[in-house]
Amino acid sequence: MISPGVTLGGRYRLDERIAGGGMGDVWRGTDEVLGRTVAVKILLPALLDEPGFAERFRGEARTMATINHPGVVDVYDYGSDQQLAFLVMEYVEGDALSRTLSRVGRLTPARTMALVAQAADALQAAHANGIVHRDVKPGNLLVRPNGTLVLTDFGIARSALVGQLTVAGSVLGTASYISPEQASGAVATAASDVYALGVVAYQCLSGHRPFDGATPIEIAMKHVRDSPRPLPADIPPAVRAIVDRAMAKDPGARWPTASAMASVARQAASSLTTQVHQPAVNGAGQQGRPMSGGPAVNRPQSGGPSVANRPHSGAPTSGPTGHPNAGQARPPYPPVPRPVSGGQGARGAASVPPLQQPYRHPSAPPMQHPAMTPGKQSDNSGGRQVLIVLAVVLALLVLLCAGVISFLLKEGNTAMGATEPYTASSSYRLTKQAGAPHSPNPATEGRQTL
């Protein structure tokens, strides 16, 4: 009976059972000789009855102890005691990925690719030493608090796995991640680990396993015959392609090595992380990348001017030819507010008051509005000035003409007042004196003689 407080091999005290599976139970224990915490995996007694299992497992334990990789759990010791076989390993502080998935459901594509890259690196280290894991699943992926991943339980599943699929529930987790060739009875290879890691990535991205069934045999056969349900639509195409290739039915169509899969997964994780964490510039979602439909910001185009002088949607450029600031790059910070039609900024940017003065570097020459640039007045301003000048000239001409007319009238009245009033008698006398011929008027002849 295994219980807390039992000591194995005379030095490993069992403190707490922390996990269990088809191959045995894992305990947190204490190495009483070195005084350190260890993980002790106790194999099921039934496995020891398999011919050659104990010796084969001991040989693999020695090989695993030679792997020096931060992503591979360290193997300290192997032993047997009281009809029990146990493996003493490094105790990893952290949670199994299976526990994280049961708590959060799904992981982001960037986080998934980062974990897949670390797991693939660990698998490559094992494959280089001739070890095939054969049981890659979230329960064997431990994630430390700092985010680094450790792959555990190398080589333990070498025992006849397909034969155990008939034991209901004993290797259900393993059946969910088994490769088609393993389910068909073929020998597991490095490509089998790549397939299982692709299934782990599928579960992280979708929140569920690709195949379900009532029994482990049914699940295993679905890996052989059926295609998995499509990943959610929000998964980037590059990530989808990585997972699809890893889960190919044909081992030759998968990633050729775990190292190749680690490389593409790390590249995808880096690209996705860069897109998420780029700081916003002038309202853009990412530095040097426009938001949907928006212009590029602070990103020079090949063969073209810098985008500091490139208009936002509908906004004026930095100035026409001859403008004092033409051809000069504006300082990259703070962002230069630019009014656009309707008082709205570029998509993703805050609205800018139309009268707000733009930022100017202290060493920059004085800025002038394009409409007030010397030697290039706007059309409306010039028309108004011409009309004003014409109106002033016309007003002066009217005043001048009125003055001249008034003067002439005044001079004429003065000259006429100095002569004798004009009457019929005076007109007659003037005519007589001038010797002009006179035609008598019968109507007035009598009065004139008197």
Automatic annotation (TrEMBL):
Gene3D superfamilies assigned: Phosphorylase Kinase, domain 1 (3.30.200.20), Transferase(Phosphotransferase) domain 1 (1.10.510.10)
EC number(s) per entry: 2.7.11.1
Protein name (record): non-specific serine/threonine protein kinase
Domain Protein kinase: 12-281
Entry's Gene Ontology BP terms: negative regulation of fatty acid biosynthetic process
CDD domains: STKc_PknB_like
Transmembrane portions of the chain: 386-409
GO terms of molecular function: ATP binding; protein serine/threonine kinase activity
Disordered, as annotated region: 281-381, 430-450
Organism: Pseudosporangium ferrugineum
